[in-house]
C-alpha cells in the first residue's frame, strides 16, 4: 500500500463507536443524536421513496435541493447564493472537506490546522498531498496567539482550516478572530477553508459568524458544511461546498470523480428540513443548551476539570487525576467498566497529549442521565 497511508491511523472516533457497541456502553464518543429528525423530514423521506428519485441526481446536487439550500444560506448569511454557481452537494462535510482540500492544494503545499483539531483534517491534508502545519488553540478559552498564526502564514500555506464552532474544543471563533484570519490569508494569498456543521448549535452569549459573509471574503473562503447535525440526519451523508464560481467549477470535478453524487432520494427529502421556519433553529439551540447544562451538571459533580463549550456538543474532560497510564487506556476503561464511551483526547492533538477524554451530549435526556449516573462513580 501507498506510503502516505502509514502517516495516519484509522479513525479513533469511529473505532470508539465499535468498542461502545461491542461492550454495550452508552456511546458518547462519535457525535450523533439518539433522537429522530424533525417530523417534516421523516414524512418527506417516506414520500421521496415513492417518487422518481432512484437514479443519479445531477452530480453537483439535485436542483430542488440546491435551490432550498441557497435560500437557507441567504437567510443565514445575507449573501446572494446562486444555486447553479456557488454550490456542490457532497456526501457530508467529510467529503466537502476532502473536495475543498483537493481543490485548493497541490501536492507539497502547506495547510494550517488549529490544534486540537477534528481528526479528519490531518488525514485530508495527507490524502491530498498537503502538509499540515499546526497553530495551538490554548485552553481555557482556546484562543490562538497572533504571533504563532503570523509565523504559520509566513511558511506560505495554501490554505487554513477553521472549524467553527469547533470540534472538539467547542470554541466559537469571534468576528474579530475571523477577520484577522481572513486578513492574513489575503496578505499571503491563501484560502480559508471552513467546516461549520455546528452553525446552529451555539450557546449564549456566543454567536456564530459565517466567515464567508465578512466583507470581501467570498472569493477566498471555501465553506464546507453539513445537514447532519442541524436536522439530526448524520446517516444521510448530506453536505455541501459553498464558494466562488471559479472554485466551484474545479470542486465539481473533484466531487464528481470521487463520488458522482450524494443520495438522490435523501436530497429530495432533506428539502423539508431546509424549508423549516426560523423557530426550528431557535428550538434546536434551546434543546442543546438544556442538554449541555444537564450533562455538565453531572461532570461538575465528578470533580473532573473541563472547559465549558461555547458551541457544538462536545466537552473535553481532564482525566489526568484518575491515574491511568494514558487516555486510550482510560477511554477503554470508561467504556468497558463504567459503561460510558468517549474518545481519547490524544486523537485531536498534534503533540502527545493524554489528559483528556472527549464526550458528546447529543443524546436524549434519559441517555444523558443514565451516562451521568454512571460517571458519578468517579466522584
Ligand atoms: N463529527 C463527529 C465526531 O466528531 C463524527 C463525524 C463522523 O464520524 N463522520 O464525533
UniProtKB/TrEMBL annotation:
The family annotation for this protein states: Belongs to the class-I pyridoxal-phosphate-dependent aminotransferase family.
Which UniProt key words apply to this protein? Answer: Aminotransferase, Pyridoxal phosphate, Transferase
* InterPro entries per the UniProt record, alphabetical: Aminotransferase_I/II_large (IPR004839), Kynurenine-oxoglutarate_AT (IPR051326), NHTrfase_class1_PyrdxlP-BS (IPR004838), PyrdxlP-dep_Trfase (IPR015424), PyrdxlP-dep_Trfase_major (IPR015421), PyrdxlP-dep_Trfase_small (IPR015422)
- Domain named Aminotransferase class I/classII large is located at 26-368
What organism does the UniProt record list as the source? Pelagicoccus enzymogenes
Group of enzyme by EC = transferase
For this protein, the Enzyme Commission number is 2.6.1.-
GO CC term, one of those recorded: cytoplasm
What protein name is recorded for this chain?
Aminotransferase
Cofactor(s) named in the record? pyridoxal 5'-phosphate
Q: Report the GO molecular function annotations.
A: kynurenine-oxoglutarate transaminase activity; pyridoxal phosphate binding
